[in-house]
Design brief:
Strand content of chain C: 5-15%
Order of helices and strands of chain A: HEEEHEEEEEHHEH
Number of strands of chain A: 9
CATH class of chain A: Mainly Beta
Largest sheet of chain A: 6 strands, antiparallel
CATH architecture of one domain in chain C: 3-Layer(aba) Sandwich
Chains: A alpha+beta (131), B alpha/beta (430), C alpha/beta (498)
Largest interface: B-C, 199 and 197 residues
Distance between the termini of chain A: 17 Å
Number of domains of chain A: 1
CATH topology of one domain in chain C: Aspartate Aminotransferase, domain 2
Helix content of chain A: 10-25%
Strand order of the largest sheet of chain C: 1-7-6-5-4-2-3
Structural class of chain C: alpha/beta
Oligomer: heterotrimer
CATH architecture of chain A: Beta Barrel
Radius of gyration of chain A: 13 Å
Chain lengths: 131, 430, 498
C-alpha cells in the first residue's frame, strides 16, 4: 500500500516534497502524506517562472481550510514551468499528488544535490519514525 | 462536589501552586456592592461628566454627535447576539455570521471595494493594518501619510511602524488640503500613501488626484473616509484607491468617551488573502441550504502562527452590527440626506460665524460637516469662555498643529438646529 | 433565511431625519457620488424582524452553557449594560477638557488601581482594545525598555511554549521579534531544561499563560522566573486564563513584568459575537515610563491626563481606549470586591468537578488536577469508533449545549478544551457531563448520530472547503451565485481552532 503511495522513481525531501529527475531538469511536488495532512487544497500561491529556487527553501505556498504550508524545494535550480492546472483547481494535488498534481519544473543548478534526498524506501521509513 | 473530585477541601485544588507564588492576604479592594449600590455609585460618577446632552456641543475632531436610532440599541441588547462568542461553531452562530456578511456587503457598497473584513478596533488601528498589507503586497518599507489626516491616526501608525520595519513620511497640508504633486514626490518607493477624505479640517481633498499621484509612484492609494459622507462623496474604490479605511463611529455608535467603536477596512478583491481580521463567506450545507462561515482563516493568527496577516482575534463585531443596523435604517436615500443635511447646516454655521466677524483660515475650500475657524485669540481660552455660557464651540487644534493656536474645528451634525447655530455665533461673537 | 438586501424594496426606508430647510451645498463634480450605495431599503418593522430572526439563529451565554476553553464564557450581568448607557458615560466626548470628565477619569483610575492590585504590578494602561493588541503593546514595551538600555539590537528572540494561543506567535512577528518554541513536559509544564538551553543574551523575553492553555499551573514557575531574570530578559504574562487565579496567585508575584488582561474574559465584558473587548496591560515600575500616552493619573483630589511622557512607545489606539468596556468591567469588579477570590475558587472547583465526571469516558492527556479549564482527548473514540472531536462537538449541539473548544492546544490530538466558569450551577455541569457520556456511548453504538450531527440547528455542517475556494464574501445582488448547485467538498471536514 505504501509503495503505491510513494513511487519508486522519485526522490524525497524530509519536508514531504518530491522530485522526479529527468536529465538536467526535475519535476517537483508534494507527497501523499503532505496532501493528506493538509486536507483538500483551496488555494495555490505560485512562484514566478524564471525564479530561482534553493534546496531546502520554500518556493511556493499551498493552502487548505485548516492550514497554509510552505512548499519546499528538494533541489536548487530555475523554474521553467508552473503547473497552471493547480492554480485554478488546487484539489488536483490531493487527487493525484505524483501525477497531474505536480507543482513546478526546474532546470537543476546542482544535480548532485539529489544524492542527499531519500529514496521511496527511506522516505517510508522516515514516515514510520514520525509516528 | 469535592467528594466527586476526590479531595478533602477547596484548598487541595490549589496544591500545585508553589508556596512562593501564593497570595495570602485578601485583595485590597473596596467591599462588594449590591446592584442597587453599584447603580448609585456609577450614577454619581456619571453625573460628574459634561456629556453632549448636558450642554450644546460642536465638538468633533474624529468622533461625532450623530443621531443613533433606537432600533440600534434594541438590536444590540438581544442576548443571543450580545453574549455570543466568535462564531467558530457556525451551525450555532448563523445570526452573527449572516450579520457580518451583511456588514461586509454594506461596507463594500459604501467604499466601492470588493472585500471588507469583519471590523478592526477603530479608525486608527485600521491605518496600521493598511500599512501592513501594503508592506507585504509591495515589498517596500516606507509609508506616506498626509498631515491633514487625523493626528491620532498618524500617531498610531508611527507607533506600529518600527515593529513592521516601516519608515513613515508625512506630506504637509497646504492651506488645509494636500497637493497631489507633493504627495507624488513623497510616495516614491512607498508601499502606500494614506490620505483622509474629508480630512481632519473637514476639507474635501482632491481625492482622485491624490489616488492617481500615489498610483503613479506605484504606492497603494489608501483613503481614510467618513462613512456618513459616502452618500454624498464618491466611493474610494471608484477613483482608484486600493484600500479604504475609516472610523465607523459616525455610523451607528454612541461616542462613549472614545470607545468601543469599530474600524472598517475594505480593499480591491485582489487583496483578499492579505486582509487581516475575520472574514465571513457564504457556503452551503449537505442539504444545499445557504449558510455562512468564517473563511480564509488560514490568514489569521490561529493557524499561520508566525506568518499571520495580523494578530487580531477579538474585534468589534457588536459595534459593526450597530453600523449595519444604522445603515439599513437609513437606506441609500437616508445616507444621502444625512450627508447633505450635515453639509447644509455646516455651511449655515460658516455663514453665521463669518457674519459675526470671524475668519475662516481655509475659506476657499469646500468642507463637509466640520470646518476650521480663526477665533482671534487662544482657542482654548475661547472654549473656556464659551463653556461658561453652556456652549462647547469645538476642538482647539493648536495641540496637534503648531501655529494654529487660534483655530477651532467646529463640527455640525444633523442633530444641530439653526437656532443652536445662531446661539454658537452669538457666544463666539463676544 | 434571506439577507437583508434580499428584503429590500425600492423607495422604502425606516428612518427619517429632520429637514433643516437649507440648500445643500454643491459638491465638486469630480468628488461627488455618482451612483448611490446599494444599502437596504426597508421599513422599520421588517428591519426589526430581520435582526430578531437573526438573533434566534444564534447561541449566546444567555441561551445556555458555553464551555469554550480559554474564552471564559461567564454570565454578563445586565446591570452593566444599564450603567454603560448612562448619558454621563454614553454621550461623553473624549475631547472634553479633563475638568468636565472627572467621573470618567476617576472610573479609569480606579479600574487601573484594581487591575494593579489583582496582577501584583505597579502601573496600568487601559488603552489596548483587545488581548492581542495588549500583547503587541507588551512586546513594544520590551523593545522600548531594551532600547533604553542599549540592548535592543542584541535581544531579538521571544520564547513561547508550543501550547500557546495563536495570537502569541503572530504578535511576536508583528512586533519584529523572532520566535523560539519551548517544549512541554509530560506533566504539562514547560520543559525547564529545554528552556534553559534556549535562554541567553539574545533573549528579549518569555510569553506565557499560567495556568497554561492546558489548564495547568506551571509548577516550575519560580525556576523559570530565575532563568529569565538571570539572563536579563523580561517575562510577559498572557492574561487569558486569569479567571483561575484572582486573589489566589498574582502574575507580578510569579515574576512577570508585563501582563495583559482580557476584560471580555475574566471581567465579563460581553463578547458581542466577536467583540468588543479590552486588553489593558499592567507593568512593573521599571517599565512604567514606556506605557502608551496619555497616562491617566491622580492629582490630589482630581484626575487628569499626562501627556508628558517622553519615553512612551506612543499610541496604540485612539483616545483612552474602549471606555464603554471599562464601565462594564469595573462594575463587574465592584460587584465582587475582594470576593474575586471566591469567583476564581468556584471556577476551579467547577472545572475539577466536570473533569472528575468525564475522565473515564474520555482520555486525559495530563493526569493532574486542573485549574479553571481542562483538556480531554477524543482520540480513543477516533481509534475505536472512527469519530472525532469535531463529531462530538457537533453532537453536543443536539443536546442543547455549545461545544467546547476543539483541536486546541495543538499538542493534544482530538482535543476538547472545556472551561465551565464560576457562573454554572452544579445541575448544569451534571447535565453537560450526562450529555458527554451519552455521546461517548453513541460513538460506540450508533456513530452515525455523531457523524450526521447537528440535526437540530438551522443549518447542518457547512462546507468550509467550498467557502474557502469560492471566497464569496459579499452579496453581489443580481449577479450573486447560487452555491447550492455546486459540488460539495471531497468529504473531509476541516477541524477548527480556538
Amino acid at each position: 500500500m505504501a509503495a503505491e503511495r510513494n513511487p519508486d522513481d522519485l526522490r524525497y525531501h524530509p519536508e514531504h516534497d518530491w522530485a522526479r529527475i529527468d536529465g538536467d531538469e526535475a519535476t517537483l511536488g508534494i507527497t501523499w502524506f503532505a496532501q493528506d495532512a493538509l486536507g483538500e487544497l483551496v488555494h495555490f500561491e505560485p512562484p514566478e517562472e524564471g525564479a530561482t529556487v534553493t534546496a531546502g527553501q520554500p518556493y511556493a505556498e499551498v493552502e487548505s481550510v485548516k492550514a497554509v504550508s510552505d512548499v519546499v524545494a528538494p533541489l536548487s535550480g530555475e523554474i521553467v514551468e508552473i503547473n497552471r492546472t493547480i492554480v485554478d483547481a488546487p484539489e488536483t494535488v490531493n487527487a493525484d499528488p505524483y501525477g497531474d498534481g505536480w507543482i513546478a519544473r526546474v532546470r537543476l543548478s546542482n544535480p548532485s544535490e539529489a544524492e542527499s534526498l531519500m529514496d521511496a524506501e527511506a522516505y517510508e521509513r522516515y514516515l514510520a519514525e514520525q509516528g | 462536589m469535592l467528594e466527586a473530585i476526590g479531595v478533602e477541601s477547596l484548598e487541595d485544588l490549589f496544591a500545585d501552586l508553589p508556596e512562593g507564588v501564593r497570595f495570602h492576604r485578601p485583595l485590597d479592594l473596596a467591599p462588594a456592592l449590591t446592584e442597587q449600590e453599584l447603580t448609585a455609585y456609577f450614577e454619581q460618577l456619571a453625573s460628574q461628566n459634561e456629556h453632549n446632552g448636558s450642554h450644546l456641543s460642536f465638538l468633533g475632531g474624529g468622533l461625532y454627535d450623530h443621531y443613533v436610532p433606537a432600533v440600534v440599541d434594541a438590536v444590540l441588547q438581544r442576548g443571543e447576539l450580545l453574549t455570543a462568542y466568535t462564531p467558530y461553531q457556525p451551525e450555532l452562530s448563523q445570526g452573527v455570521l449572516q450579520s457580518i456578511f451583511e456588514y461586509q456587503t454594506a461596507i463594500c457598497e459604501l467604499t466601492g471595494m470588493g472585500v471588507s473584513n469583519a471590523s478592526g478596533y477603530d479608525g486608527t488601528t485600521v491605518a496600521a493594518d493598511a500599512c501592513y498589507i501594503a508592506k507585504h503586497a509591495t515589498g517596500r518599507s516606507k509609508v506616506v501619510i498626509t498631515e491633514a489626516t487625523n493626528p491620532q491616526v498618524r500617531q498610531v501608525v508611527k507607533t506600529y511602524a518600527p515593529g513592521f520595519g516601516l519608515e513613515v513620511v508625512e506630506v504637509p497640508h497646504r492651506d488645509g488640503a494636500t497637493d497631489p504633486d507633493e504627495l507624488r514626490a513623497a510616495a516614491e518607493d512607498a508601499a502606500c500613501a494614506i490620505f483622509q477624505q474629508p480630512n481632519f479640517f473637514g476639507v474635501l481633498e482632491p481625492a482622485p488626484d491624490l489616488a492617481a499621484a500615489a498610483a503613479d509612484a506605484e504606492a497603494l492609494p489608501v483613503a481614510h473616509v467618513d462613512p456618513i459622507s459616502l452618500g454624498v462623496l464618491e466611493a474610494p474604490g471608484n477613483y482608484g484607491c486600493a484600500l479604504a479605511i475609516g472610523e465607523g463611529q459616525s455610523a451607528g455608535n454612541h461616542i462613549s468617551y472614545g470607545g468601543p467603536h469599530y474600524g472598517f477596512l475594505a480593499a480591491r478583491s485582489e487583496f483578499i488573502r492579505r486582509m487581516p481580521g475575520r472574514i465571513v463567506g457564504e457556503t452551503t450545507d449537505a442539504a444545499g441550504n445557504r449558510g455562512y462561515v468564517l473563511t480564509l482563516q488560514t490568514r489569521e493568527q490561529h493557524i499561520r502562527r508566525e506568518k499571520a496577516t495580523s494578530n487580531i482575534t477579538t474585534n468589534q463585531t457588536l459595534l459593526a452590527l450597530a453600523g449595519l443596523v444604522y445603515l439599513s435604517w437609513l437606506g441609500p436615500q437616508g445616507l444621502r440626506d444625512v450627508g447633505e443635511t450635515c453639509m447644509a447646516l455646516a455651511e449655515y454655521a460658516k455663514e453665521r460665524l463669518v457674519a459675526t466677524g470671524l475668519e475662516l483660515p481655509f475659506a476657499d475650500r469646500t468642507t463637509f460637516k466640520e470646518f476650521a475657524v480663526r477665533v482671534g485669540r487662544n482657542a482654548r481660552d475661547v472654549v473656556r469662555d464659551a463653556l461658561a455660557e453652556g456652549v462647547h464651540p469645538g476642538y482647539a487644534v493648536g495641540r496637534d498643529y503648531p501655529g494654529m493656536d487660534d483655530v477651532l474645528l467646529v463640527a455640525v451634525t444633523e442633530r444641530r438646529t439653526k437656532d443652536e447655530i445662531d446661539r454658537l455665533a452669538e457666544v463666539l461673537a463676544r | 433565511m434571506k439577507l437583508i438586501f434580499e428584503k429590500s424594496h425600492p423607495g422604502r426606508r425606516a428612518g427619517r431625519l429632520p429637514d433643516p430647510g437649507l440648500p445643500a451645498p454643491e459638491v465638486p463634480s469630480e468628488l461627488r457620488r455618482a451612483e448611490p450605495p446599494r444599502l437596504p431599503e426597508i421599513a422599520e418593522p421588517d428591519l426589526v424582524r430581520h435582526f430578531t430572526e437573526l438573533s434566534t439563529r444564534n447561541f449566546g451565554i444567555d441561551t445556555g452553557f458555553y464551555p469554550l476553553g480559554s474564552c471564559t464564557m461567564k454570565h454578563n450581568p445586565r446591570v452593566n449594560e444599564r450603567l454603560a448607557s448612562l448619558p454621563g458615560f454614553r454621550d461623553l466626548h473624549p475631547l472634553e477638557d479633563e475638568e468636565r470628565a472627572q467621573g470618567a477619569l476617576r472610573l479609569c483610575v480606579e479600574l487601573q488601581e484594581t487591575l494593579a492590585e489583582v496582577t501584583g504590578l505597579d502601573a496600568v494602561s487601559l488603552q489596548p482594545a483587545a488581548g492581542s493588541q495588549g500583547e503587541l503593546t507588551g512586546l513594544m514595551l520590551m523593545h522600548a525598555y531594551f532600547a533604553d538600555r542599549g540592548e535592543d539590537e542584541q535581544r531579538r528572540k521571544i520564547l513561547i511554549p508550543d501550547t500557546a494561543h495563536g495570537t502569541n506567535p503572530a504578535s511576536v512577528t508583528m512586533a519584529g521579534y523572532e520566535l523560539v518554541d519551548i517544549q512541554t513536559d509530560p506533566r504539562g509544564n514547560i520543559d525547564v531544561e529545554d528552556l534553559r538551553a534556549k535562554v541567553d543574551e539574545t533573549t528579549a523575553g518569555l510569553m506565557l499563560t499560567n495556568p497554561s492553555t492546558l489548564g495547568l499551573f506551571d509548577e516550575n514557575i519560580e525556576e523559570i522566573s530565575r532563568i529569565f531574570h538571570d539572563a536579563g530578559a523580561l517575562m510577559y504574562y498572557d492574561g487569558a486564563n486569569l479567571n483561575a487565579v484572582c486573589g489566589i496567585s498574582r502574575p507580578g508575584d510569579m515574576g512577570f513584568e508585563i501582563v495583559h488582561i482580557n476584560l471580555h474574559k475574566t471581567f465579563s465584558q460581553p463578547h458581542g459575537g466577536g467583540g468588543p473587548g479590552g486588553g489593558p496591560i499592567a507593568v512593573s515600575e521599571r517599565l512604567e515610563p514606556f506605557l502608551p500616552v496619555p497616562a491617566i493619573v491622580r492629582d490630589g483630589e482630581a484626575y487628569r491626563l499626562d501627556y508628558d511622557r517622553p519615553k512612551s512607545i506612543g499610541k496604540v489606539r485612539g483616545f483612552l481606549g474602549p471606555f464603554g468596556v471599562f464601565v462594564r468591567s469595573y462594575a463587574f469588579i465592584r460587584a465582587y470586591g475582594p470576593e474575586l477570590r471566591e469567583m476564581s475558587e468556584v471556577a476551579v472547583l467547577n472545572a475539577n468537578y466536570l473533569l472528575a465526571l468525564l475522565r473515564e469516558d474520555y482520555d486525559l492527556p495530563f493526569d493532574r488536577l486542573c485549574m479553571h479549564e481542562f483538556v480531554l482527548s477524543a482520540r480513543r473514540l477516533k481509534r475505536e469508533h472512527g469519530v472525532s472531536a469535531l463529531d462530538v462537538a457537533k453532537r453536543l449541539m443536539d443536546y442543547g449545549f455549545h461545544p467546547p473548544t476543539i483541536y486546541f492546544p495543538l499538542n493534544v490530538p482530538e482535543a476538547l478544551m472545556i472551561e465551565p466558569t464560576e457562573t454554572e450551577a452544579k445541575e448544569t455541569l451534571d447535565a453537560f457531563a450526562d450529555a458527554m457520556r451519552a455521546i461517548a456511548r453513541e460513538a460506540a453504538e450508533e456513530p452515525d448520530l455523531l457523524k450526521q450531527a447537528p440535526q437540530g440547528t438551522v443549518v447542518g455542517r457547512l462546507d468550509e472547503v467550498k467557502a474557502a475556494k469560492r471566497a464569496l464574501v459579499r452579496y453581489h445582488f443580481e449577479e450573486h451565485p447560487d452555491l447550492s448547485g455546486e459540488p460539495a467538498a471531497a468529504g473531509v471536514e476541516a477541524p477548527k481552532g480556538a
